[in-house]
Design brief:
Elements lengths: L8 H4 L5 H14 L13 E6 L11 H7 L3 E5 L6 E7 L7 E2 L2 E2 H18 L3 E8 L2 E8 L2 H12 L13 H5 L7 E6 L7 H11 L3 E8 L1 H5 L7 E3 L6 E3 L3 H23 L4 E6 L5 H15 L1
Parallel strand pairs: 3-6, 3-8, 8-9, 9-12
Antiparallel strand pairs: 1-2, 4-5, 6-7, 10-11
Helix pairs in contact: 2-4, 4-5
Length: 297
């Protein structure tokens, strides 16, 4: 069976338990993952030992599994756990839907899968939700009960209001470690450059940062057949949909905006990935593993 259906967000909507969603996604991802793509570099091999829950999945030896039908870990002398913080945009624009799937649904599934993968690798995980001008936070920990709290909070997010205005980001995200991995899941919709302010502050702290920019296919192609007017979910402003010329202008402006956004973030050493909501989660999971490895260096 192909692993890709297990990574399809539309398939995942049938699963109501978010912890089960996370396990389903990671099981499908690991089933299709080539071992060479998650192998660490520059580490001295020490010994084999039996797999234990919470071990770093990057060091599973698949050849040993094929020979013995048991999981073994290749141990090294380097500490492989880090702190991973998930930053979730839960402003009202995340209620935007494409083919029955909302941006918040996609963000929920992606964050849950990444949190589960982080936990399985022994990482401490934290959750920060930017919603209706406020900021909810769960500091990073690595115990199973904490992971359950993260799943619970993700399940119960109801997008509302606008993105949170600037708070004391420097004090909040300084942390105890030299570097952390920050995963920001957002649609990049902002009224007063509040998202830009957040990313500027985080970049100044020299953390590894991944921005997953969620957009629906209907947004990318301006395909809103059957509608004559669009309404801004955060301001209430309306825009008429009138002709093909408008669609052409929209497409040109959108491509210029996406290119400028990507360049601006890359200049700050922030990894940027445009995520189309009709695509499986595997690309985002691979991006996470690659960036996580950089955080260990």
């Amino acid at each position: 069976m192909s692993s890709r259906p297990l990574l399809d967000p539309k398939v995942l909507t049938a699963i109501k338990d978010l912890s089960l969603v996370a396990r389903t996604v990671i099981d499908g991802f690991m089933a299709g993952l080539n071992r060479s793509q998650v192998k660490g570099t520059g580490l001295e091999f020490s010994q084999y030992r039996s797999y234990q829950p919470g071990d770093d999945l990057r060091w599973l030896d698949w050849k040993m599994y094929a020979r013995s039908d048991r999981y073994y870990i290749r141990e090294s002398e380097m500490e492989t756990s880090i702190s991973v913080r998930f930053l979730i945009d839960a402003s009202n624009s995340m209620n935007h839907q494409d083919s029955g799937l909302s941006k918040m649904d996609y963000a929920r599934y992606l964050a849950a899968a990444l949190a589960y993968l982080s936990f399985m690798q022994g990482d401490a995980t934290g959750l920060y939700v930017f919603q209706d001008g406020q900021l909810f936070s769960l500091p990073s920990r690595k115990d199973p009960q904490h992971l359950s709290r993260i799943f619970y909070q993700l399940e119960n997010i109801q997008p509302a209001g606008q993105f949170t205005n600037e708070v004391h980001y420097k004090q909040l995200f300084t942390g105890e470690r030299r570097k952390e991995l920050l995963i920001f899941i957002t649609d990049m919709y902002q009224q007063r450059q509040e998202i830009t302010t957040l990313l500027n502050s985080l970049a100044a702290l020299q953390h590894e940062i991944i921005v997953f920019h969620l957009m629906g296919r209907n947004e990318l192609e301006m395909n809103f057949s059957g509608y004559t007017t669009l309404q801004d979910l955060e301001t209430g402003e309306t825009t008429p949909l009138n002709n093909a010329q408008m669609k052409k202008a929209y497409t040109a402006k959108l491509q210029a905006y996406l290119a400028a956004t990507r360049m601006q973030l890359l200049e700050q050493n922030i990894f940027y990935r445009l995520v189309e909501m009709d695509q499986p989660l595997d690309k985002a999971l691979r991006d996470f593993l690659n960036q996580r490895q950089k955080s260990l260096i």
